[in-house]
Amino acid sequence: MDRDQLRPPLDPAALRDGLVGSGLPWRRLDVVAETGSTNADLIAQAAGGTDIDGSVLLADYQNAGRGRHGRHWSAPPRAQIALSVGVDGTSVPRSGWGWLPLATGVAVVDALDAVAGVTAGLKWPNDVVVDGGKLAGILAEVAAPKPVIVLGLGLNVTLTADEAPDPAATSLLMLESSATDRNTLARRILRELATRIDAWRTAGGADPALVADYQRHSLTLGSRVQATLPGDRDVIGLAQAIDETGRLCVDTGGQTVAISAADITHLRPSV
């Protein structure tokens, strides 16, 4: 099968069926052939006065995909699931917002297990990892000044090794999974994510099930890590816990440092 056959366009009607509408998990779902960034598009909609809570935007191709710290990433058309959703955070204290991207990671891991039979783990704060390779990344942004969070996901589906922008990247195809139907994968991710968002809102932050599930899926907790903070300051120690705001708590041996943003490297125990 050639790459074009492996990569049919997304089917909006199939994606909306049973997911979008009154009494269903999402209010609106749109698919575009190409855009710069689905996150940027939803944020722009919110800035223009559109209520984006419950909105889903998917793109067959992102030509200016965004990652943390302003990084850019790209993949060939239709080789990824690139989606963003809008979440109204009004009912949840801002101190609990940090758990929303973590909940998204749990939803993705659960969906991959259910649909693809792939066992993935979570590297704090937002990488979905399989066998040391990054399968997906998550970016949460606030559509300020409104209390609306935009959650973005990029999941590598049929990306090949020669197309990968980073040697650390992997994809479902590279993992030899037969579950490469992006419609099926996206539908399950959106269903799992809607369930996690509802629980997050009800609890006003991290509910006990989310905390337990995140701990179970975490590759970072219990590991010795190097956290590179903004300004290139390093914190090295044992990743002990995730606090109530979603920060990673690292025991350096002399103190416990709560980290809200950093690049995390998992170290060998002897380091």
Shape: globular
Strand order of the largest sheet: 1-2-5-9-8-7-6
What is the CATH topology assignment of the largest domain?
A: BirA Bifunctional Protein, domain 2
Structural class by secondary-structure content: alpha+beta
Classified by CATH, the class of the largest domain is Alpha Beta
What is the domain total for the residues?
A: 2
What is the level-2 CATH architecture name of the largest domain? 2-Layer Sandwich
- CATH homology superfamily of the largest domain: Bira Bifunctional Protein, Domain 2
What is the β-strand count?
Answer: 14
Using only C-alpha atoms, the radius of gyration works out to: 18 Å
Helix and strand pattern: HHEHEEEEHEEEEHHEEEEE
How is the main sheet built?
A: 7 strands, mixed
Mean pLDDT: 94
Q: Report the end-to-end length measured between terminal Cα atoms.
A: 45 Å
List segments where confidence is low: pLDDT < 50 over at least 5 consecutive residues.
Answer: none
**Strand fraction:** 25-35%
Q: Which percent range fits the helix content?
A: 25-40%
Tally of helical segments: 6
InterPro entries: aa-tRNA-synth_II/BPL/LPL, Biotin_CoA_COase_ligase, BPL_C, BPL_LPL_catalytic
GO molecular function, one term: biotin--[biotin carboxyl-carrier protein] ligase activity
Pfam families: BPL_C, BPL_LplA_LipB
Organism: Mycobacterium fragae
Give a brief rundown of this model.
By secondary structure, this protein is an alpha+beta fold. Helices cover 25% and strands 29% of the residues.
